[in-house]
Design a protein that fits this description.
It is a single chain. This protein has one helix and eleven strands. Strand 3 and strand 4 form a beta hairpin. The longest helix has about 45 residues. The chain is globular and about 40 Å long. By secondary structure, the chain is an alpha+beta fold.
């Protein structure tokens, strides 16, 4: 009876170790697929940033993605970036895109997008960092240390 229990435990351990080894082999392939997919989305210049969390220093709030989406469409952007409720500020970044730059670091699988939007004598600097795991970080700044940062994803 003891031998049966020991064999069962040994078999269970070996099976879980084999499953873990397979998962680790698949992971880099998925990351590469995510990166290539994100790269194609950004190159197309028509995509959405869907905000999931807004944050400032150590504070953060979960967002309603239906109301927190920015659309980048070739030479135009539309959307409103909301801050934490306690900060009570927002930026309407709807307008023409100026100085659009997309940098692709294939070795790190990292994408950086930056552009400016001028609206009513106010210039907004927009930065989007896309990580290889599909997470994206949006920062909108007006200078004067006035920024709003979001975590989310990009989609077609």
């Amino acid at each position: 009876m003891k031998k049966m229990v020991v064999l069962t435990l040994l078999f269970s351990f070996l099976l879980s170790a084999f499953n873990c080894a397979q998962s680790k082999e698949i992971q880099p392939e998925k990351v590469n697929d995510y990166y290539e997919s994100s790269k194609n989305i950004v190159k197309n210049k028509h995509y959405y940033f869907i905000g999931e969390v807004v944050y400032s220093n150590k504070n953060k709030e979960k967002l309603n993605s239906n109301a927190n989406t920015i659309e980048i469409n070739n030479s135009k952007v539309s959307g409103i970036v909301m801050s934490l409720k306690i900060e009570n500020k927002s930026f309407n970044i709807t307008g023409d895109i100026e100085n659009y730059k997309a940098l692709f670091e294939d070795d790190k699988r990292h994408i950086s997008v930056s552009f400016d939007v001028t609206r009513v004598n106010q210039t907004y600097s927009v930065f989007i960092d896309v990580k290889p795991n599909r997470n994206a970080f949006l920062t909108v700044s007006t200078g004067n240390y006035n920024t709003i940062s979001w975590t989310g994803t990009i989609k077609k």
